[in-house]
Amino acid sequence: MSKPACRGLYAITDAFLLPDDRLVAAVERAVLGGARLVQYRDKSRNDARRLSQAHALNELCRRHEVPLIVNDDVDLAARVGAAGVHIGRDDPAFATARARLGETALIGVSCYDRLDLALDAERAGADYVAFGAFFPSPTKPEEVHAPLSLLREARATLNIPIVAIGGITPDNAPLLLGAGADALAVVSAVFAQPDVRGAACRFAVLFA
């Protein structure tokens, strides 16, 4: 079974922007607007709610043939049968995630502003790497800053897809795509908008 392509709008959920009663509907609107990947991110300790929401989102994403990636939690990804997991600096080691989820899982790694981490991730077998934040981010204002030059260097060096994240809008997105990003990970510019589907469309057309 071939893995899904990591290209296009990568919509990331946020528990503060999307209350429980809006989550699934908002994600469906984002997918209908053109999101090509969805990441479920919820840092709360409410395990029952997270399991229920992840199950619901995975069913939705499967219907629309869009991969659901679970942030941080390899066990949760395995329990709901998600397409993959995104791991970061404080998350389980890549090898642990691959062993638990198998070779068909889509596993991405946060590399912040460091190309060396991306090279290590590629050698380990990561399916994509993510750099950022490229612009000030309302969801992670304390995040490290990554320069556009990093994307250009990564594009010339890496052979796996590159995801850009951090404060991305339809206006600044072309800079990232021009520098080599394959996918744009977006939170607020999709899910904080009154018209989620329309917001997703504005990103999707950039990949047409």
Question: Could you characterize the architecture of this molecule?
Answer:
The chain has 208 residues and is an alpha/beta fold. 40% of the residues lie in helices and 19% in strands. The protein has a domain at 8-108 and 170-206: TIM Barrel, CATH 3.20.20. It has an 8-stranded parallel barrel, surrounded by 8 helices. The radius of gyration is 16 Å and the shape is globular. The model has no long low-confidence stretch (mean pLDDT 95).
The secondary-structure class comes to alpha/beta
Instruction: State the CATH topology of the domain at 8-108 and 170-206.
Output: TIM Barrel
Q: Shape, please?
A: globular
> Strands of the biggest beta sheet: in what spatial order?
1-2-3-4-5-6-7-8
Poorly predicted runs of 5 or more residues: none
Q: What is the name of the CATH superfamily of the domain at 8-108 and 170-206?
A: Aldolase class I
Order of helices and strands: EHEHEHEHEHEHEHEHH
Rg calc: 16 Å
The tally of strands reads: 8
For the record, the CATH class of the domain at 8-108 and 170-206 is: Alpha Beta
The major β-sheet equals: 8 strands, parallel, barrel
How far apart lie the N and C ends?
26 Å
Q: Helix coverage percent of residues? A: 25-40%
Rounded mean pLDDT score? 95
**What is the correct CATH architecture of the domain at 8-108 and 170-206?**
Alpha-Beta Barrel
Q: How big a fraction of the residues is strand?
A: 15-25%
**Number of helical elements:** 9
